[in-house]
User: Fold this.
Amino acid sequence: MSYLLAHPARVAILAGAHLALVAAALGTALLIALPLGLAIARNERASRTVIGVLGALYTIPSLALLALLVEVVGLGPAPIFVALVIYAQFVLVRNVVAGVRAVDPAQRDAAVGMGMSALQRIRRVELPQALPVIVGGVRIAAVAMIALATLGGYVGAGGLGSLIFIGFTLHHTDEIVAGSVAACSLAIAVDLALRLFERFTRSHQQVQREP
Amino acid sequence: MSGASIRLQGVSARYDGAAQLAVNDVDLDVKAGEFIALVGPSGSGKSTLLRTVNRLVPLAQGNIELDGVDIMTLDPVEMRRGIGYAIQAVGLFAHMDVATNIAIVPSLLGWDRMRIDERVDDMLELVRLDPEQYRNRRPSELSGGEAQRVGVARALAAQPRALLMDEPFGALDAIVRHTLQRELQEIVRSAQTTTLFVTHDVSESLLLADRIAVLRDGRIEQCAPPLEILAHPASDYVHELFAADEAIARLREQARRE
Assistant:
């Protein structure tokens, strides 16, 4: 713990970089997972195929995937960024599909029957109702990504992983502990924040008024 | 605003991609402002027939004209906004309050805010719900009867020229059901809204309809005014269907004497 106490500013900067990397990867992952999930949710076969493929990708050992990606995109933040985006897809797409499927069929029927276009139906009915489930997926993905992103230390991506990596090569247990504690704290904080947001979407969706 | 005429010619349709036809070669000429009940046991194709009119179920054969215009030449999304739609499960949007639910079609049509707010209150009063009290309620805070009323208000909000209703009072007890039936009758009669009304409750059809279309295995067995159906059923099937209870039997006797 002494490293953490002696260099709080340095750890904070690394934690900030760590969080920025995860946030960027999560944002990118959502840009893929949201439209993908919405597109396949109503098609049983497409859902099963896509989620199956993403599940298979999810089982690839992270170190192996990272090593492969270094061959493709080189060192630095790029390989860990791509790895995070790939791993997040499974949880995110699965939750988007589950959330959309949970929408009451009568509400969907009414939405179409009253003259909503596909986009209006998604934006006004399916997305708002699926939101708590989607946020739940974002929360699980974010926590896993914060832990996974420490691997970035091995490929020069910066973040808290670099602290752990330095501690490992120099046999400084103190730095390993500092990096791990900081990463855990970050994960717990993000988990808590997203839990609150999830609860907010659950209660908010009941009283929302559209303009 | 008066209702639209609806003309079905040789309409056949399948339910959800099934091989068998759920609706088989149906002709039905609905005059503007007319109230038609589609009656038959479950599986007779009445719901599927209703849903061909707003193109929720695609036509396998035949054509449907709305005020003389082939519906296949219309944009389905735009067309549906001009046709009220209410279903037994109601399908109120759970994340929106009552006012927002009723305002759906007017807002899709781009009405301005003030006109929408006014209309929402008018519609709530029409279905006998106090706007002050109900405007901001969530669907989860409504009883079954209140939800059905809001469903009817929502279907009528944008002054549709035609109304499609699939057992809109299906889940209600007899008393609430009778009240709502009478209210609906008043509303659509005064607005001259052409109405197609699916029900498996024959007394409901006798009470509400100008003409009753009796369906069997996807075909119309008989289409006639209530008293004629009772006095001169076209087949044993129609006779059986309407022979259900004593009250109807007495009414039949009366009809014969007239």
Remarks:
- The first strand of chain B starts at residue 6 and ends at 14.
- Residues 34-54+75-257 of chain B form a domain with the Rossmann fold fold (CATH 3.40.50.300).
- The interface with chain A takes residues 51, 54, 56, 77-83, 85, 87, 89-97, 99-100, 104-105, 107-108, 113, 136, 138, 140, 154-155, 164 of chain B (CB under 8 Å).
